[in-house]
Here is the input.
Amino acid sequence: MINIIKRFQDLQNIKVAGKIASDTLFYISKYVKPGISTGKINDICYDRIVNYYNAYPAALKYMGFPKSICTSINDVVCHGIPSYNCILRDGDIINIDIAVCKNNYYADTSKMFFVGQPDDTAVKLCKITKKSLFLSLKCIKNGGKFKHIGKIIQNYIDKKGYSVVKNYCGHGIGKNFHEEPNILHYKNNCNLNFRSGMVFTVEPMINLGSEKTFVMNDGWTVKTKDGSLSAQYEHTILVTDYGYKILTL
Ligand code: MF3
Ligand code: CO
Ligand code: CO
Here is the structure.
């Protein structure tokens, strides 16, 4: 089997990357206001990651991605490209996804931000999406099963009347930005067990309407097909003997 159990030294390094990613996500929060462009938000994050933390924004040039972070507004599900032409407006919800590389180790995290005051529907979608992520983490411990993550998320989201996006998933992470295994956020038959020392992301994308998505002509931006709102939260998680540790808090 592929080696997906991290050693102590690996974990120390991933933790450092995780701290940088989550600190940057916190740092940017004060700038997320009506009137700022996502291009400007990108630049602030780039500057913080590169010049303050001496790290590298993992998205930049990843498979040709042109910017340092992903900014996904309203009906954008994920992989939105920051742009100076894209100005945040009162009522928008935006996912900012920050992955960093430090000392050749990666960590990845994202969350939703409210621009001004979004309506109750949008706020509730974000709240439920965040809850689905944290509920799913409860099944994680050495010996548990990966498939329970998807089961928990989908059961909860079905109950709320939203839909789980199925064509994008979480991923192992460490010396690579994306590595095995894939983490599915919906019901599945994966028989892989959690083992202490595994590190991966959980990053459910939840739509208000249909789960169907499409990719725009820019080759990156993923939107809901029906134009409904979408939300996402992401953390990098370490499996431990009796539970898990969030490395991007
Ligand atoms: N951060 C995203 C993830 O959660 C991946 C972004 S890849 C990019 O896996 F190229 F779009 F930046
Ligand atoms: Co990720
Ligand atoms: Co991410």
Q: What stands out?
A: Residues 59, 62-63, 65, 70, 79, 97, 99, 108, 203, 220, 234 surround MF3 (ligand 1) (CB under 6 Å).
